[in-house]
Each structure stands twice: as C-alpha cells, then as structure tokens.
Amino acid sequence: MNICIIGSGGRESALAWKISASQQCDVLFILPGNAGTADYGINMEIDIQDHDAFRQFLIEEGIEMVVIGPEQPLVDGLVDRIKADEELSGIMVIGPSAEGAKLEGSKAFAKEFMEEFGIPTAAYGRYEEDDIEQVMAYFEKHEPPFVLKADGLAAGKGVLIIHNREDAKSEAREMLAGKFGVAGKTLVIEEFLDGTEFSVFVITDGKNYRILPVAKDYKRRYEGDQGLNTGGMGAVSPVPFVDEILMEKVEASIIQPTIRGIGQRKMDYTGFIFFGLISVEGEPFVIEYNCRLGDPETEVVIPRLENDFVDLLSALCNDELDTVEIKESNETTVTVMLVSDGYPGPIEKGKRITGIEKVKESIVFQAGTKIQDDSPVTDGGRVLAVSSFGQTKEEALGKSLRSIEKIHFEGKKFRTDIGWDV
User: Fold this and answer.
1) Which of 179, 232, 361, 378 lies at a CB distance of 3.0 to 4.6 Å from 351, suitable for a disulfide?
2) What is the pLDDT of residues 41-67, one digit of tens each?
C-alpha cells in the first residue's frame, strides 16, 4: 500500500516510524516531513493548499491511504476536499470532516456539543467582541483563577489560566481586540477545575471506537510544572492513577456520549479523538477535544501500541473496527522533549544537531528539524522527542536522559522530571 502522512512534527515522526514498520506499507510519503521522517519514507515539498498539485501527487503516486497529522488541515476541510473528488474516492482518509474537526476548531462549538449530550465539563460563558461589559461583570462576580480560551485555533497559545482579577480583565480585552487574530474574536471563559490532567485517545469511525493507551503530558516549561505553557515538554504512558474505575467513568460519561453525539449530528468522522481530561476528586471532566492525536503524547502512545498500525487504520476505514482488539505493551514509555533556548518565546533556528546516531537505548523522534548542508539543524521550538521503554517510569526516564547526553545543539533545553507526579 502507498501511504501519505500530512505534517512535519514529532507526532508525524512517530506515525512514520510506526507505519513504515507495517508489512502493509510499500511506499511512505511525508508532506512535508522533517529531517527525521526521511529515515522512514520520502519527504515531499508539496503544498496541500494547492489542490491541483496535491491531487496530481495523490494520483501519480497511487496513494491508497492519507493520514492527516495536524489539526489545521482538518479544520480547513482537507478530508472533505479529498472525499468530494471522484478520482480520489478510493483513497482511505484518516481524519474527520471539517464539521467533525470543529470539536477542536471552536471551543464554543465543543462546549455546546458537550452541553447538548450531557458530557461533564467546566461551566462556561461565551462572549463576542461587543460583550466587553458582560465580560468585566463576570470577573467582578466570580473569584479567580479564571480560564480564558480563544475560540479558534491559536497554535496552542490561546488558553490562559489567570489568578488575578485585573490581569484577567486586561487579557480578555486584548483577546477580544485581536491578540490571537480571528481565533480570539469569540472568547470562552470557563470555571477553573482543580485536579489532575490526563489524555485519553480513541480511534473511531463515528459509530464504533477503540481506546488507545492512556497518557499524561507536561506543558509547563520548567521542572515541577512551573513557568509558561508550551506545546508539551514530555509525556508518560501508562498513567498509574488512571485505574479501571476511573476509565469506566471516562468511557460511560465521556467517550460513549461523544460518539453518540457524533452519530446523532451525522458528522463524517473517521479518525482519532483526543480527550483532554481532568480528574476532580475521582470524577472525570473534559477540558478540551482534539480532532487528532496529541503531541507529545503520540510519542509515547504509538510506541506502546503493538497492533500493526496500517491494519488498524484499514479496519477503521472498512467498517471493521469492531473486530479489532487493541494490544498495548505492559512497559512504561517516557518521552522528553528537547527544545530551543527561549522556547516558548522567541528562538533562533539553524543550530546544528549532532549525536542522534549515537543513541541506542531510545527512539529519537525529530520534530522541529530540517536538513541544511547535509546535516540536521533546529527549525522550531520543540526540536526532538526522546522516547524510551522501561519496566518503571523511572527506568524509562533514565534511559531518555542518558540518550539526551549524547545529543548536542546550541541552546539545548529539556526537563528532567517528566512523570514526577504520577
């Protein structure tokens, strides 16, 4: 089977690693990919927004399956475009339609969906640009902390937790005035939930679903979950506090009504749902939906998945998902992100990376990298994800940290405490 992955991050590196290992994969293309994905397939500089060029590529290369990694193409309707083209109708496409992707693309839409189908989530209010007086009144009536969310996609930067009333007022004004562009023109303010976060992933055809390995990511930049939020500094799977009792609650009160809602709303949904959850005194609540696999959670979830991934995706597309049993490793996987100096703020790119080839006891998934003068260089804030297996999270973390010692680039930064609180 000829397969194409859309994306260029650590998630797509993990997907390429897993798909390339399948006996069902003949040729793998990654659009555009990064310096590391070239180890698993063929990187292609094709603009997926150029429909004619993308369409010609799919036809000429005989692509039979397209796996869409990031959220933006899904929200923009790439799945709909492919499925609407008669010449491309035989291609299996992994990802929801634009309507399904609104579960991630619009925080307000997701909140209304959860309200309609009785899915536990924080109380909220939705406000537009003209509602500034109501927003200010909200802050006067409620006590901090406040959770402010830009309605649309904001590159992972559109969620703020603010512990001071005046700061919240200032940030709300800036958001409604365009701090996050169009994404922030609608503002969602949520009740703050105090608990422990974790991530649950399912693969679904909109009717049936299968639960993938559970993970927990670490978004704060510094040890002990201090500092600014990032796209993720690392992740661990499994998560010890997510026991059978908690997962039964998650499945009954969150996963099943979500799938039921997708069906009742007749969404075309063939792909992954990421449930960003929080356990509050043992009860699960939804913080957010994502319409794709998370990053860096994918870098621990995919390694623990023992199924042939292409077989799993084929079953998804051929209405055979209900016949599949998910098989996962009993070992723990920890991934540690290496990031550029200054991240999540301004960074310098183009720093030469050395030593990856010396790593033997971990898997290095490249993220923000590219090839320059025949060598990998940094090309983003999050540069590499170093994933390792162990009988315990301590053993897995130790392997990743030893591997990191072998890798060098100017300004290399990372956390040493991934999994510290589980």
Assistant:
1) 378
2) 999 999 999 999 999 999 999 999 999
